[in-house]
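>> received
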Amino acid sequence: MQTERRNNMFFYGSVETGGNLWGLFVDKNAAGERTIFNTPLTQFVRLEADFRDYFKVNRNVTWANRFNVGYGHAYGNSTSLPFVRQFFAGGSNDIRAFAARSLGPGTYRVDTARFADQAGDIKIMLNSELRFKLVSILHGALFADAGNVWLRREDTGTPATPGNPGRPGRPGSGFKLQNALSELAVGAGAGLRVDASIFVVRLDVAFPVRKPWLPAGERWVFDDINFGDKAWRRDNIIYNIGIGYPF
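>> returned
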């Protein structure tokens, strides 16, 4: 990035595939699956785009914005991406008002959200951050984050069978374009950064203002914000410590 310019833009795009070449040479077994050494072959295409803009308001103030979107399509033996290649939402470099990997998919919410490990095939994320110098190497920031992840297909679970208890589904986890905006989580917060040029240590404090798992029409939670209430702070304020800027 050219630091002398007032406005700088950055774009990153990636295309990742898995199992496609092997799939041309491996025949299906009796169960209709393509396997290698009796292991089902995972076939997928994963696309991701990350666009960022850094606008210098003046010498000590920068307005930074990011738009990040990802899409994964699994086929053949699989209906979703491998877990390690799925998209996640929440955490110190992401949607900071929510614990890491706790958001989604969609409007689904696991009971123990602070220790959840949820993922999706589709991701939409928007970040906006006003960065300003306080004194010497100490900098501050005000920010807002929005986003979520979804599964390409609704997780309906698996039915119970003799010897197998089955698995419950995740209602609301599927992606529907007409519902995407209404299912975005939104958070806001402030941060302090020690920027010594060769390294940056960051502390961000954030809280949710929109919770996608709540019923439609009740997802904005501005009226519930109460910094003086200990129970509210415990359930809503998230502290993020990181090295480097979030984007």
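>> The mean pLDDT is 89.
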